[in-house]
Amino acid sequence: MNVKTFTGLTILLSLLAIPPAIAGAEPRELLLAAYSVPKEAYEKRIIPAFVRQWKQKTGETIQVRSSFAASGAQARAVVGGLDADIAALSLESDLQQLVKAGLVTHDWKQGPHRGIVTTSIVALGVRKGNPKAIHGWEDLTKPGVEVLYPSPKTSGGAMWDVIAIYGAGRHHGKQQGLAGPASDQHAADLVRRVQRNVKVMDKSGRESVTTFERGVGDVIVTYENELLPRIKQGRPYELVFPSETVVVENPVAVIDRNADRHHVRDLADAFVSFLNEEEAQQAFVEFGFRPTNEAVAKDAASVFVHPPQVFTIADLGGWDRAFAALFSSQGAWTKAVEETR
Questions:
Q1: What are the C-alpha distances in Å from 124 to residues 17, 194, 196?
Q2: What distance lies between CA 87 and its chain's CA centroid?
Q3: Which Pfam families match (predicted)?
Q4: Are 257 and 103 in contact (CB under 8 A)?
Q5: Cα–Cα distance between 168 and 309 in angstroms, integer?
Q6: Do the bridges between strand 116-127 and strand 244-254 make them parallel or antiparallel, or are there none, so unpaired?
Q7: CA-to-CA distance for 323 and 306, rounded, in angstroms?
Q8: What is the C-alpha to C-alpha distance for residues 164 and 311, in angstroms, rounded to an integer?
Q9: Side-chain half-sphere of 256: how many Cα atoms within 13 Å?
């Protein structure tokens, strides 16, 4: 090999060793596919903070793009080809769609807090002064009360809303001495009576809040975090916390197949880890979400209301059982909608 050839080979190898950002290539990027509700938390605080932290740690400039939609619709989009590297969805059953499709191949529940990055509770939003005197679930069944919540066919938030109603109905039934199928029937009856008063079912929780803000409806069934920031901004709403409600658990996971194919697995893993760190968890709190980080949760305990009878999806037998009881072809909510039509 002559000197000229050796010199050229040396230059080529040196160029190959230069990181893409320095060599002039496009910066690496992540795509986050998330449900619609935490849009502001991610876009205004969390994504910029992560990009800044990654630059400080590694010197690499990266981009994080985001896509927001109703949780169920988002899950179907990813299965259908949306090339996202991370999924932050409203409920476990939506994330399990990605597992069944072979997109998420690791055990995402082995992460911190079993893969749950934020929690919330289902609450009731009413107009300023609570003119319809809404205090609990039974008040949603009164004549003349117009109720809003999104459609469980597209929205994970809507599933949580209906599950809160159903779980409260079971609790009421047990207080009356009912058990087993009788308690379940009592719960199904409450779902049916509330559904009679549902005026609009939008595609997502965010769209449902927008409809409420336009003056439609007397009460909205929603995550507390949808209204907390708006109330702080002076919007004419109030939050009512029923005595019985469900803990909303929001999962996040790296989409293995896409992150590996895009060669951003290190970024995706780091982003999910960052979501559990204090900076990101405090940002979630600012936007009304309940943190899973223990230190942040302790500091934020006084920020949130703690209803006396709070239950989890596990208390209802898990997602498979809840889905069958409510959203299957013979489920209580499905039958209630058919009856209303």
A1: 57, 13, 17
A2: 10
A3: SBP_bac_11
A4: yes
A5: 9
A6: antiparallel
A7: 26
A8: 9
A9: 12
Reading the chain (341 residues) residue by residue, the pLDDT tens digits are 444 443 443 433 333 443 444 445 689 999 999 998 899 999 999 999 999 999 999 999 999 999 999 899 999 999 999 999 999 999 999 999 999 999 999 999 987 799 999 999 999 999 999 999 999 999 999 999 999 999 999 888 899 999 999 999 999 998 899 888 999 999 999 999 999 999 999 998 889 999 999 999 999 999 998 888 889 899 999 999 999 999 999 999 999 999 999 999 999 999 999 999 999 999 999 999 999 999 999 999 998 999 999 999 999 999 999 999 999 999 999 999 999 87
Compute how many other C-beta atoms are within 10 angstroms of the C-beta atom of residue 262.
18
Q: Which residue has the tokens 């990654």?
A: 54
How many whole angstroms separate alpha carbon 133 and alpha carbon 107? 46
Q: Which residue has tokens 């476990």? A: 92
Q: What is the pTM of this model?
A: 0.84
Q: What backbone phi and psi angles, to 5 degrees, belong to 111?
A: -75, 180
Tokens matching residue 207: 């769209």
Amino acid occupying residue 283: A
Domains in the chain (CATH in brackets) are: 23-118+249-300 (3.40.190.10), 120-248+305-340 (3.40.190.10)
Distances (CA, A) of 256 to 85, 101, 148, 260: 7, 11, 37, 6
Q: Look-up: residue for tokens 């809040």?
A: 209
